[in-house]
Automatic annotation (TrEMBL), chain A:
<keyword id="KW-0813">Transport</keyword>
<feature type="domain" description="ABC transmembrane type-1">
    <location>
        <begin position="85"/>
        <end position="291"/>
    </location>
</feature>
<dbReference type="InterPro" id="IPR000515">
    <property type="entry name" value="MetI-like"/>
</dbReference>
<dbReference type="InterPro" id="IPR035906">
    <property type="entry name" value="MetI-like_sf"/>
</dbReference>
<keyword id="KW-0812">Transmembrane</keyword>
<protein>
    <submittedName>
        <fullName>Sugar ABC transporter permease</fullName>
    </submittedName>
</protein>
<feature type="transmembrane region" description="Helical">
    <location>
        <begin position="275"/>
        <end position="292"/>
    </location>
</feature>
<feature type="transmembrane region" description="Helical">
    <location>
        <begin position="167"/>
        <end position="192"/>
    </location>
</feature>
<feature type="transmembrane region" description="Helical">
    <location>
        <begin position="28"/>
        <end position="47"/>
    </location>
</feature>
From TrEMBL, chain B:
<dbReference type="Pfam" id="PF01547">
    <property type="entry name" value="SBP_bac_1"/>
</dbReference>
<keyword id="KW-0813">Transport</keyword>
<protein>
    <submittedName>
        <fullName>Carbohydrate ABC transporter substrate-binding protein</fullName>
    </submittedName>
</protein>
<feature type="signal peptide">
    <location>
        <begin position="1"/>
        <end position="24"/>
    </location>
</feature>
<keyword id="KW-0732">Signal</keyword>
<dbReference type="InterPro" id="IPR006059">
    <property type="entry name" value="SBP"/>
</dbReference>
<comment type="similarity">
    <text>Belongs to the bacterial solute-binding protein 1 family.</text>
</comment>
<dbReference type="InterPro" id="IPR050490">
    <property type="entry name" value="Bact_solute-bd_prot1"/>
</dbReference>
<dbReference type="GO" id="GO:0042597">
    <property type="term" value="C:periplasmic space"/>
</dbReference>
Length: 301, 438
């Protein structure tokens, strides 16, 4: 008994002496985290995969019947779902391209010695600090044809941004660009400040023009960090829900995430919506993989 | 010894706490409903019940946009957070076949509610399947779509004169859908920021269906055959096509940006001087006669949904029945509350508070009909109502209607005939999927 006590004390005192032991770190941090991930991420993921092969409807007490790949087949043959994917792709392209142009452009402007640079940068970051719901409601008012300030400022009269089926998606994308360009700007600024000054000095000695300097020095060196911004923003844009849901109900702006929500929680087609969620997941993974491969190539250059 | 005393005291405390908790549970009921004025009236009525019986009634609410999702999430989890729910009429199929609602057939028969309540409310808020004699809810809040209008605009002598000169008949409360359209066109003056009419256009949940149904039913059209689930030849009949065209025509005279409008916006059309006439459920009219919420309260009039070209006159049904949730542990207590709720005197109190009673006797009484400027129109409407499909797959049918009708209404895609043919195909496929038709 006494021996055991001494051994235990020795172990504890040794662990205390060198900080937390590996075993303590595992028990305190890693095991709870892994358990948390399994319970809240992995288990629902696998469970929903199972449901995607059934005709389960959560609104009824009926048991789930195995239907094989029928949900996947139906979804891939559903023109509405394809239309939702096409709308989402269009939205992602417009939104991410817009953020890249605006964010990088503003970063270029800020990447020089200007007065109050810090304050201006901080103010420009404000949109991305707001919640999506607040931004959605705020822009809904701005776009209003009767009392919205946008039409008033641009002299557009009763131009309908959100009520016009042809305009609604662009209006949502514009709001997203406003909100998330600062994120691209921030990353770009970090990239730009890391470009060695001596390269520009050497280019100046060689009398290289601004066009040449930008495409041969600035852009190649900032490209990897811009690619990271593109990856993040593409994934985010692909799963956009709240902004589009709050701003407009136009079918022309019904992103795949909105269709998924309606299928799961308004129509209660649980099995089918699980299958759609997996299709979306596979697509996002595929797109991200392509980007990551391209990012690695850019880094190798 | 000290430990022993502490343990004994803790045990006694725990026992008392559990006892109190059980007692408190037995003496309280939670009713789930959407967030709107009638839910506040029900809470006031519940307070009366608490005074009489000691049973605390809590009316828990959630915004309309979350109502269905939150209720069914709780049902699916077999949760007992709520004892009763004031569910939408179209939930009857899902609520009953899903096992979420308690069968109230015996209760209904015992209290002869088929005769006590107005026939339409029994048919649409309580019975499923139709004509089965099985009841799942007690009619609680009667409601239907009606219209409010700007009396001052209508009664202006200059406007009357100009209207007569243009249309050849007197400007007055519309006698039919043609007059409704003419008046909407007459008051449509974008340069003055005045518009003709406010209608439901939102394509989430049931707004579009509730709006279009007013034209559809009054034009003599129908959603389908409720007994056989045959939709082809009904929802795409000539009358239905004419109704959709008429409803789309009205959209031309709405205020700008009116592509996602439901009850909130339609009341705003009157309070903010936007439109001459506005469609809305009667349950939203109390705020229009309140000068605090409507600066035009004194100049706001009301009328029932007008007849169509052949004289048919119907309106879309709103409102809800109250059901006992099968997962509630207090079903007996909930039944006692319902017994109290259906009493004549309670129904009178319910009407006096502002709730729309479904009691036929109270509805017919002169006191009720003269209590507000719109109660008479409400009374007339409640005998001319029709409802959307109440089958368990109603949400899919609603979604299909939204996907077909909205692009035509708002985006001008295709024709009314093409839209409704496509809708008939969608609905037929859905009914086939659920084995209702071959």
């Amino acid at each position: 008994m006494a021996t055991t006590m001494i051994t235990t004390l020795d172990r504890s005192s040794r662990a205390v002496a060198r900080g937390l032991s590996d075993i303590s770190i595992r028990n305190l941090f890693i095991i709870p985290t892994v358990l948390f991930l399994i319970v809240f991420n992995i288990f629902p993921l696998i469970y929903s995969l199972g449901y995607s092969f059934t005709d389960f409807r959560a609104s009824t007490n009926a048991p789930a019947n195995f239907v094989g790949l029928q949900n996947y087949r139906d979804l891939l043959n559903d023109p509405y779902v394809w239309s939702n994917f096409a709308i989402t792709a269009k939205y992602v392209i417009i939104s991410v391209a817009g953020q890249l142009l605006v964010g990088f452009g503003v970063a270029m402007l800020l990447n020089r010695d200007i007065p109050l640079k810090g304050l201006i940068t901080t103010l420009l970051l404000l949109p991305m600090m707001l919640s999506m719901a607040v931004v959605g409601l705020f822009w809904k008012l701005l776009y209003d044809p009767s009392w919205g300030v946008i039409n008033y400022a641009l002299g557009l009269g009763n131009f309908e941004w959100l009520a016009d089926p042809k305009m609604a998606l662009y209006a949502v994308a514009l709001t997203d660009i406003w909100m998330w360009s600062p994120f691209v700007m921030l990353l770009s600024l970090a990239g730009l400040s890391a470009v060695p000054k001596h390269l520009y000095e050497a280019a100046a000695i060689d009398r290289a023009g601004p066009f040449y300097t930008f495409f041969r020095i600035t852009l190649p060196l900032v490209a990897p960090i811009l690619m990271i911004a593109v990856i993040f923003r593409t994934m985010e844009a692909f799963k956009t829900f709240d902004l589009a849901y709050i701003l407009t109900s136009q079918p022309t702006a019904e992103l795949i995430s909105i269709r998924l929500y309606k299928m799961a929680f308004q129509e209660w087609q649980t099995g089918r919506s699980c299958a759609l969620a997996y299709i979306v997941l596979i697509m996002v993974l595929a797109i991200t993989n392509i980007y990551v491969k391209y990012l690695n190539k850019v880094k190798e250059r | 010894m000290r430990k022993l005393v502490t343990s004994v005291l803790a045990g006694i405390g725990l026992t008392l706490a559990c006892g109190t908790s059980v007692y408190a549970q037995e003496k309280s009921l939670t009713i789930f409903w959407a967030e709107w004025d009638p839910a506040n009236y029900l809470q006031e009525l519940g307070n009366e019940y608490e005074k009489e019986t000691g049973v605390k009634i809590t009316v828990e609410t959630t915004p309309w946009s979350d109502f269905q999702t939150k209720a069914f999430t709780e049902f699916n989890a077999h949760g007992d957070a709520y004892d009763l729910v004031v569910g939408d009429s179209q939930w009857l199929g899902a609520g009953s076949t899903g096992g979420h609602y308690v069968d109230l057939t015996d209760f209904f028969k015992k209290h002869d509610l088929g005769n006590v309540m107005a026939p339409a409310t029994v048919k649409y808020y309580s019975e499923y399947p139709g004509n089965s004699g099985k009841y799942w809810a007690i009619p609680l809040e009667g409601d239907a779509v009606g219209w409010s209008y700007r009396k001052d605009w209508f009664e202006d002598p200059k406007e009357k004169e100009a209207f007569k000169a243009k249309y050849g008949y007197d400007l007055d409360v519309p006698k039919d859908f043609k007059a409704l359209r003419d008046i909407a066109e007459f008051f449509y003056r974008p340069d003055q920021k005045k518009y003709g009419i406010a209608i439901y256009t939102d394509n989430s949940y049931d707004a579009m269906a509730m709006g279009f149904e007013n034209a559809l039913f009054s034009y003599g059209g129908d959603l389908g055959d409720y007994a056989t689930y045959k939709v082809d030849g009904h929802i795409n009949s000539e009358k239905a096509v004419a109704a959709l065209d008429a409803y789309k025509e009205l959209y031309k005279f709405t205020p700008p940006g009116w592509a996602k409008s439901f009850f909130v916006e339609d009341n705003q059309a009157i309070t903010e001087n936007l439109a001459a006439m506005s469609m809305n459920f009667f349950a939203f009219f109390p705020s229009l006669i309140n000068p605090a919420s409507n600066p035009n309260a004194k100049n706001t009039g009301f009328f029932a949904n007008p007849p169509g070209p052949n004289g048919d006159q119907f309106a879309a049904l709103g409102g809800q029945g109250i059901s006992i949730i099968s997962y509630s542990k207090k079903q007996e207590e909930a039944t006692k509350f319902l017994e109290w709720f259906i009493k004549d005197e309670t129904q009178k109190k319910w009407a006096a508070l502002g709730g729309y009673t479904c009691s036929a006797a109270v509805l017919k009484s002169p006191e009720f009909q003269s209590a507000t400027p719109y109660n008479k129109a409400f009374y007339e409407t409640m005998f001319k109502v029709k409802d959307f499909w109440a089958v368990p797959e109603y949400a899919e049918l609603l979604q299909q209607l939204n996907q077909r009708v909205y692009p035509y209404m708002i985006g001008g895609e295709g024709t009314a005939k093409e839209t409704l043919d496509a809708l008939a195909t969608d609905w037929n496929a859905t009914f086939k999927k659920y084995g209702r038709v071959q």
